[in-house]
Design goal:
CATH architecture of chain B: Up-down Bundle
Number of helices of chain A: 15
Structural class of chain A: mainly alpha
Number of domains of chain A: 1
Number of strands of chain B: 0
Helix content of chain B: over 70%
Order of helices and strands of chain A: HHHHEEHHHHEEEHEHHEEHHEEHH
Largest interface: A-B, 77 and 69 residues
Number of helices of chain B: 13
Number of strands of chain A: 10
Oligomer: heterodimer
Shape of chain A: globular
Radius of gyration of chain A: 25 Å
């Protein structure tokens, strides 16, 4: 065990943890903005109630995304100074753009949104949440463009042992980024959709049990439907962009593709195994090249070629981790999308008979509401697995073909220092995860705060009003 | 002007903005138990920074991001060199961030007290650490480290107390003013200990003429600090706040005029700089984006410009 191993563990722990919160910030923020827009346009009260309810859950989660994000930016310099020096010229640019163009927008307008309910005109207040959401999505683009460059470096030359940017446009429109950005952002919408499904399903079950009635609680039905639509559409984008990513892997990162299947030798009509031993012939070739007879390179053959090209060394990533994360990602991701399609069909409108035909909502079955609880863990696990596939599959490189992970670590940082910081972050993050979980569960159980009826004239404020926690803060 | 010079100035500007803006919310966080006596007052005090603290923190993220893009080896050397102090800063920013966001959402006095502890510790720790880190970077001595930390903490506390006096009314306003006066009793000696150390790292006082800029800035920082004390004494809160903001700006200016010679020991700005192409691209993007950022952040302060008169109402 040396500083390199711990630094890698720290990066893995802090990044996976950070990315538990980011997808919800991206997807749930957009969903909340959509709800508020629906309220603004229709004036229906239940949209406002939902905006504030999911808005609160969004904010509990947002805090964690922000504070764990700062760690990420510092970590490159703290643990990976050699990497930072090598790539700063290229990799630093999208990071600086992210801060300047996205984070300022996100945090400033979110502050305005949280505190601006009574102070801004409705229209302007609605604009603030959209500005914040645009910031979140933009930040995803920049960081994914930076990340894509590590896997498929473009628009640069190496001068004096440092990468130098020669074409920013090439970096920002890297084919790897253009496939990865929609993949990850849409997956974030699936994660957030799954979150809303689980919450809505839970509320439907709970309110039915409390009220003992058979009719749907209409409000939760509408959030459930909204989340089903979002998840199904986003799921289609995830699948499409994932397919594109798979084809790019064959050209750009053959080792990762080979590792994802555990394919040992170059092979035409390469099979895809659902699990070890259960193979679909030609399927991997079909996935990677849209041609069942296409050749896919194998791990051992690539290893040999890399040794000739880069010198002796081990160029093979951790095969079991990469193999299984690929399967977990696909299976859990697809089952979430399947669940949403099923839900859309189950809750489709029903035409009523009679002269004035109109569509009438169908009742959400209890068993489906219960099934929706699975939509919380499934896409999140798929997301984590996707990142493990993507980043562990990139090993032993930090920058594919240019810089090895072993050569990226800070030379002056000791084992003890990394051990301390890994411990601090693990303990702190663990405690905060529990706290966030407790907070979210509590608010979901309690349900939305009752909306006070709107007053024409400002009411006299009592002490009790003053002490009651206001809605958003 | 060389692009690397322009970017050094921009990095200095971002750090300055960060210290001025987050300076007061660090101060407010540190002073939370001093300025408020009950839950309603605590909410009133925290409401002064509620809408803005997160936006203020982005100045740090942008400053560090700009260092990464424009001066990779400065970024890498600085962050890996100050490993444990920066770990403490990060831990502080984490507990403070969740404390601020969650304290209105937790249940019961005990959980709120835990959030408050996070806010206080997470404001205190970075406020001290930033001064300590830069003091150590300049002189490398224990004295410089402690004096730097004491200075940044004391000035943040003073800046924060004046901010609360400026943004509230009623008993808290009076208490904030008294606290500001008490804080200046610590800030002035800390400034006398720390400020001369900044330009001395470039040239001793006798040789000030060869490096006039840091000596001038440090002296002016001292003068504006004295002015701030006088102004808060005379209840001119707006001007006092301007004066502490000037103190922080000038002290940071002094710091960066010294770092200009060597941002890290043995490193020069031209050596550390990214290639001209990257700097050119970043200049265009910065020039296009920064005016908007400044405009909408200023708008936020405008929206929340009113004094918070009654506890909790404007929370």
């Amino acid at each position: 065990m040396d500083a390199l191993d711990l630094a890698r563990w720290q990066f893995g722990v802090t990044t996976v943890y950070h990315f538990l919160f980011v997808p919800l910030t991206i997807g749930l923020g957009t969903f909340v903005a959509g709800l508020q827009t629906a309220w603004y346009r229709t004036g229906k009260r239940h949209y406002l109630t939902l905006t504030k309810f999911f808005g609160k859950l969004f904010l509990i989660n947002f805090a964690m995304g922000v504070v764990t994000g700062i760690v990420q930016e510092f970590q490159f310099g703290m643990n990976w100074s050699e990497y930072s020096i090598f790539v700063g010229d290229v990799f630093g640019a999208p990071l600086a753009m992210e801060a300047l163009l996205a984070f300022f927008l996100e945090s400033t307008f979110l502050g305005l949104w949280i505190f601006g309910w009574d102070r801004l005109p409705k229209r302007v207040h609605l604009m603030t949440i959209w500005a914040a959401v645009i910031g979140s999505n933009l930040s995803a683009y920049f960081i994914l463009a930076a990340n894509a460059w590590m896997k498929h470096p473009v628009g640069y030359e190496v001068v004096d042992g440092r990468a130098r940017m020669t074409d920013i446009w090439a970096v920002l429109t890297n084919s790897t980024a253009l496939a990865q950005v929609p993949h990850v952002i849409a997956a974030s919408f699936v994660v957030a959709g799954g979150f809303v499904l689980a919450v809505s399903g839970y509320r439907i079950l709970r309110e039915r049990r409390m009220a003992g009635i058979v009719a749907d609680p209409a409000m939760w039905r509408s959030s459930l439907r909204g989340a089903l639509v979002m998840t199904a559409i986003a799921g289609a984008v995830v699948a499409g962009s994932g397919d594109l990513s798979g084809q790019l892997l064959r050209e750009q990162q053959p080792m990762k593709l080979a590792a994802a299947e555990g394919l040992r030798h170059d092979q035409s009509a390469a099979p895809f195994s659902l699990a070890p031993g259960v193979e679909i012939p030609g399927m991997l070739s079909l996935l990677a090249a849209h041609d069942v007879n296409a050749t896919v390179q194998g791990v051992d053959d690539i290893q040999e070629r890399y040794e000739q090209r880069f010198g002796p060394g081990d160029y093979t990533p951790n095969l079991p981790v990469v193999y299984w994360s690929f399967r977990v990602m696909i299976m859990f991701g697809l089952s979430t999308v399947g669940l949403s399609v099923l839900g859309l069909w189950l809750t489709r409108g029903r035409r009523t008979r009679g002269a004035r035909s109109r569509r009438e909502p169908r009742r959400v079955p209890d068993w489906f509401a219960r099934l929706c609880l699975l939509a919380l863990p499934l896409p999140t696990l798929a997301m984590i697995a996707g990142w493990l596939l993507s980043e562990i599959g990139r090993q032993p490189w930090t920058v594919m073909g240019e810089l090895l992970t072993a050569a990226s670590v800070s030379p002056g940082v000791t084992l003890a220092q990394v051990a301390i910081s890994l411990t601090v972050f693990t303990v702190l993050y663990g405690a905060l995860a529990v706290a966030e979980g407790v907070l979210l569960v509590r608010y979901v159980k309690a349900g939305p705060a009752p909306e006070p009826a709107p007053h024409r004239t400002a009411p006299e404020r009592t002490d009790a009003d003053r002490l009651a926690p206001t809605l958003m803060y | 002007m060389e692009l690397s010079t322009l970017w050094f100035i921009l990095v200095a500007f971002l750090w300055t903005g960060y210290f001025v803006l987050e300076g007061f919310d660090f101060g407010v966080g540190t002073l939370l138990p001093v300025l408020s006596r009950n839950e309603a007052e605590r909410r009133q005090v925290l409401a002064t920074i509620g809408p803005v603290w997160d936006g203020n923190e982005v100045w740090l993220i942008t400053a560090v991001g700009a260092m990464f893009a424009a001066f990779p080896s400065w970024y890498a050397g600085f962050l890996s060199g100050f490993y444990l102090p920066l770990l403490m800063v990060l831990a502080g920013l984490i507990v403070r961030g969740v404390g601020l966001e969650w304290r209105g959402k937790v249940r019961g006095a005990r959980e709120r007290a835990l959030c408050d502890a996070g806010i206080v510790a997470g404001s205190f720790l970075p406020a001290f650490m930033w001064g300590a880190v830069f003091g150590n970077l300049l002189a490398g001595t224990v004295f410089a480290t402690l004096a730097g930390g004491a200075f940044s903490l004391a000035v943040a506390v003073l800046h924060g107390a004046i901010f609360v006096a400026l943004k509230t009314d009623g008993p808290i306003r009076a208490r904030a003013r008294r606290t500001a006066l008490a804080a200046s009793a610590a800030a002035v000696p800390a400034a006398l200990a720390a400020l001369p150390g900044i330009p001395s790292a470039a040239a001793p006082l006798a040789g000030w003429i060869s490096h006039p800029a840091p000596w001038f800035a440090a002296t002016a920082a001292m003068a504006t600090l004295a002015a701030a004390v006088a102004l808060i004494w005379r209840r001119r809160e707006g001007w006092a706040f301007t004066a502490t903001a000037a103190t922080i700006t000038l002290a940071t200016t002094a710091l960066f005029t010294v770092l200009w010679r060597a941002p890290l020991p043995g490193l020069t700005i031209p050596e550390a700089a990214s290639a001209p192409y990257t700097l050119t691209v970043m200049t265009w993007i910065g020039a296009a984006a920064l005016p908007f950022v400044l405009a909408y952040q200023a708008w936020t302060y405008w929206v929340f410009r009113k004094r918070l008169t009654q506890p909790g109402i404007h929370v």
